[in-house]
Amino acid sequence: MRDGQMSLAEQLSGFYQGMQSRMAPADLEALRCADLQLAAAKADQAILQPGEPAPKFSLFDQNGVRVSLADRLGVGPVVLLFIRGGWCPFCTLQLRAWQDALPRLHDAGGDLLTVSPQRADACSRCAERDLLAFPMLSDPAGAVADSYGVTVELPEIVRPLYLRLGHDLPRINDTGTWRLPMAATFVIAPNSGAPDGQIVMAHADLELSKRCDPDVAIQAVHRLTGP
């Protein structure tokens, strides 16, 4: 974070408070009920934790290039970021924060991969809109998110609100489902690490306004690369 710049947590919290102040009571109650249902579901999920091996994958990025986690780990540590999509304003704030933090991550010797359930064309539009200089990988079937244990299904009670806001996720993601990854960040040790490909930091949260700050992940990368 640059001096005088709001942290990601401050940006997310401020946006969330403003959004809630403009919402109808019925919509706020729907969000509250959905959060409770998601929290109950999360308790039964096997989200990957530090010390576990990171599942390998290869996906297409916003430029149609296939990107392999194994190849990236051959160069250095990887920060793996799961987002809901470019339509989500909270994800947009997070992506912009990472774009700002990207030089610091590269200086630490790390790389960033972002995974979204969006189709590749939607990933491309999002990257162009926010001038993102890191791969946005399309995981439309959710197989990679599933392998890390971060997939949830948006509760029915809140789907009408999403539809009114123009977020028809079954259509946007071309899956016919309301399955999404929760906001999750993993830091993965490089192939030169011990052991190779091990998760060393994991953060997953269902609350829209709670995301791992880039500086926290970058510190984990620094611990891997060392002086």
Structure report:
The protein has 227 residues and is α/β, with parallel strands linked by helices. The chain has one domain: Glutaredoxin (3-Layer(aba) Sandwich). It has nine helices and nine strands. The chain has helices at 8-22, 25-42, 69-73, 89-107, 120-130, 143-147, 159-164, 169-172, 214-225; strands at residues 58-60, 66-68, 78-82, 111-116, 136-138, 151-153, 179-181, 183-188, 199-205. The strands form three sheets. The chain has a five-stranded mixed beta sheet with strand order 5-4-3-8-9. Strands 1-2 form a two-stranded antiparallel sheet. A two-stranded antiparallel ribbon has the order 6-7. α1 (8-22) packs antiparallel against α4 (89-107). It starts with 7 loop residues before the first helix and ends with a helix. The mean pLDDT is 90.
